[in-house]
Amino acid sequence: MIKHKELLGRRLSSGLLSLTLVTAALVTSAGAAPAQPQTGTQGAPASTVGCAQLRAALKTMKPGKAACMDKAAAVPETAAVKRWQRSLDAAPSAVPCRLGQVALDRTSSCNEEFRIYSVVQVPGGQVLGTGTIGVAATTVLDADSRTWRHNVRLGLLDATGVVAIGTTADVSLDCTTGTTGGNPPCSATGGGTRSLPYPTTNVDYPFSVTSPNVTYPSWDQYTHSPTPILKLFNPAATEQAPPGRLGQAGLVRCDSTPYVSTRAGGCVYPAYTPTYRISVHDPLVDQVAWHILWAQQNLKTAWGVEGAGPPLHRTMVRSVINANRRTACPRSRHRPAGKSCDEYPFASSYEGASRNPDFSWHMVPRDQNSREGGSDYRLKFYRDNRILDHDAFWVHIVT
Fold first, then answer.
1. This prediction's pTM
2. What is the rounded CA–CA span in Å between residue 368 and residue 353?
3. What is the spatial distance between Cα 267 and Cα 107, in angstroms, rounded to a whole number?
4. Which residues of the chain have pLDDT under 50?
5. E-state strands within 256-374
6. Does residue 164 sit in helix, strand or coil?
7. Which residue among 64, 89, 250, 317 is least packed, with the fewest CB closer than 10 Å?
8. Phi, psi of 23 (to 5 degrees)
9. Per residue in 40-63, is it b (16+ CB within 10 Å) or e — as a string?
10. Which secondary structure element, helix H or strand E, spans residue 136, and what is its range?
């Protein structure tokens, strides 16, 4: 029902990613004690360094071997990268990963990116080994639960020298990002430290993420944008690379709004606008579908038609719904036997007749009218996608 939509463009063109400074990597010949970086739910220190900054500081560092990590400036065009991307078909996500891009729908996402990991000689700067780290962070939300699955899949690609031997990765999840005001953070379990084999074998870091419980009948909405933190280690490096914050797919919204689903609530990506579909070939609702199609093609505005008009926005306010129905389908309109009055835009939208003179009404079979707005069709769509008050949605008629 939900179609895939790419919301964010090629994020890999943004250049080098700033990485958390591991003070040890810039220890001067005076031998200052290294500071310990913070990761996980505590977040990372503010000062940052990448491989370019590391090279600029080589002459001030103690002799040894230092590792660094940058975000790839472009998608690496190698056979290993292409094979790895094809392997993502098995990743635990409903949305297909897109090479070097972020994709999401209402309840799932995949954020694919690449990191360049290097070990260099200090102070000479000779490259002792390098490798591309493929990263696919996939999320599968649950519209009927405030707990969801997040997985980070890593692959060590095109490794050379010391990087091909013994490289390990630690992945944690920073749950403090994406919160606003008094919004409490989410909590996460999972992740950990695993070796990255070469030649490449995909390594998964699964997490279980939970939005704080909301006591019924309080239905607060919380937003979250958990950020994976990647730390790479190599036994040849005397100074390890600082941790890097991986990309995010977008804000997750969790709520326990009544009449949407269970009291436990659920979570979605509100930035994605889902599409409600019914067919003129469905004998259970075909007359309603034909009316909507006629309205979309003949009203002044193509209400709800993606690419041609504005989306509809759900209203859960009973007084607005009733006013829409009274305006579009007053009791004075004659109802033939077995028929009822159908209106478009829907009475359950803020674009309904009481607020919008550009509407249509038509007499359709009563059972079809009730069925289309009920738990097997539109109400099911609202619940499956957690369409809350003022949430946008499209309407597509299959012909």
1. 0.83
2. 21
3. 7
4. 1-48
5. 266-268, 275-279, 312-313, 339-344, 360-365
6. helix
7. 89
8. -55, -30
9. bbebbbeebbbbebbeebbeebbe
10. strand 127-140
Return d(Cα 300, Cα 303) in angstroms, integer.
9
Structure tokens at 194: 């695993």
Q: 3-state DSSP call for residue 163? A: helix
**Main-chain dihedrals φ then ψ at residue 86, nearest 5 degrees:** -65, -30
Please write the tens of the pLDDT for every residue from 113-168: 999 999 999 999 999 999 999 999 999 999 999 999 999 999 999 999 999 999 99
Give the Cβ contact number of residue 126 at 10 Å: 10
What distance, in Å, lies between the first and last C-alpha atoms of the chain?
15
Q: How far is CA 106 from CA 95, 250, 288, in A?
A: 10, 11, 26
Q: What is the pLDDT of residue 261?
A: 72
Burial class (CB in 10 A: 0-12, 13-18, 19+), 222: buried
